[in-house]
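If you are new to this repository, start here. Below is one unmodified record pulled from the training split, so you can see the exact layout before writing a loader.
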Amino acid sequence: MTDAAQPTAKPRLWVDADACPVVIKEIIFRAATRKQMATVLVANQMLRVPPSPFIRAVQVPSGFDVADNYIAAQVQKGDLVVTADIPLAAQVIERGASAINPRGELYTAANIRESLSMRDFMESLRSSGVQTGGPAAFSQADRQAFANQLDRLLARLPG
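And here is the target side for that same chain:
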């Protein structure tokens, strides 16, 4: 059998779970069950996940970007990653996967460089002592935007 004839693996849903809001994880759990999609939550702490043949948690060692590096190494073309980490989103896109943040923003090849530039700019402001504030509080609108974007992305996946 040639490579072209090899069946493609079903896409997986990866979650950068350390800072993912609980309400977003709950939406992901329901979607994984509904779509019967392999879903992997990666964190450097123990996670509770519902009993499901589709959902599992992976605990990685503590450390800077350990969970991100694990996801980046495992993600395959066609997978979907939920992360607020822009450098991880950039790696995911380079590998042919999709990435969204917990507020429902879809990262694409067209917008990821701008997102990286803004992140780096804000980081340089903070490191020079400028108080930039944090992100806005997570809202019901954010939750709805995420659920809608996730549904749109999952509807496009095969299977």
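Two things worth knowing about this chain: The beta strands are 13-16, 39-43, 55-59, 80-82, 98-100, 106-107. Helices lie at 22-35, 66-74, 86-94, 112-127, 140-156.
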